[in-house]
Amino acid sequence: MVLTGLVGVGPSSATKMVAAGMENAADVAAAGAAGLVKAGLTSGVAGKIYSTAEAALAAAKAAKASLTALAGIGPASADKLLEAGIASPAGLIAAGADGLAEIGLGSSVIKKSLAAAAKAKPKEPSEAAKKAPPVAKRPATAERHEPRSVVSDEKAGVRGDQVGKKLVSPKGVADMLKRIKENK
Questions:
Q1: Coil/strand/helix, residue 95
Q2: Checking phi first, is residue 85 left (phi over 0); if not, alpha (psi -120 to 50) or beta?
Q3: Nearest Cα to Cα of residue 20 among 11, 28, 29
Q4: Domains of the chain: residue spans and CATH
Q5: Terminus of the chain with fewer CB atoms < 10 Å: N or C?
Q6: Is the dihedral of CA 84, 88, 89, 90 positive or negative?
Q7: 80-131 per-position pLDDT tens digit
């Protein structure tokens, strides 16, 4: 993966990172956020780039593991496939024998890997997952932050002068300061 493919890396950041000896996501992950700061990036940008590099490496590792799990595909073949943009059994099938030959895989590897990819099925959800009720989605931001208002009663533990009045929680610090100023 080239550096500009990482979130937060622009031309300026890439120049600084290359000057510091970082050429790919693995180099960035090895340097860490502190190494990025040392290369001249701000700590916020360095943290974002480092996190993205770690995630990219984890995804590449998982993709390579899923490919090498197929019959006929070893680490070298998996690297060729990943460089060509093929990261799953479905990608193998889509590329077909001709596409895999263009990548540089041998005929025996192609035959074994396509047969294994055809047998590989996406995992079905378990019966418990099928029967589980759907997870409720969080309401939109505006709905979550609506002020909660209640009419106070003596059971609510409010001051005597607030009984029977509508109480609304402040919307933020500015609203709270405004209310304090009004009550003086």
A1: helix
A2: left
A3: 28
A4: 1-63 (1.10.150.20), 69-121 (1.10.150), 144-182 (no CATH)
A5: C
A6: negative
A7: 888 888 888 888 888 888 888 888 888 888 888 888 888 876 555 555 555 5
Q: 18 — phi, psi (to 5°)?
A: -65, -40
Do the Cβ atoms of 49 and 6 come closer than 8 Å?
Answer: yes
**Which run of H or E residues covers position 115?**
helix 107-119
| pTM score | 0.53
Rounded to the nearest 5°, which phi and psi values hold at 166? -80, 125
> Of 138, 165, 143, whose CA–CA distance to 152 is shortest?
165
| Region of 89 on the Ramachandran plot (φ > 0 left; ψ -120 to 50 alpha; else beta) | alpha
What secondary structure, in 3-state letters, does 15-82 show? HHHHHCCCCCHHHHHHHHHHHHHHCCCCHHHHHHHHHHHHHHHHHHHHHHHHHHCCCCCCHHHHHHHH
Instruction: Give the tokens for residue 120.
Output: 């590989």
164: tokens are: 């029977």
With residue 166 as reference, give the H or E element that holds it: strand 166-168
Q: Which amino acid is at 69?
A: A
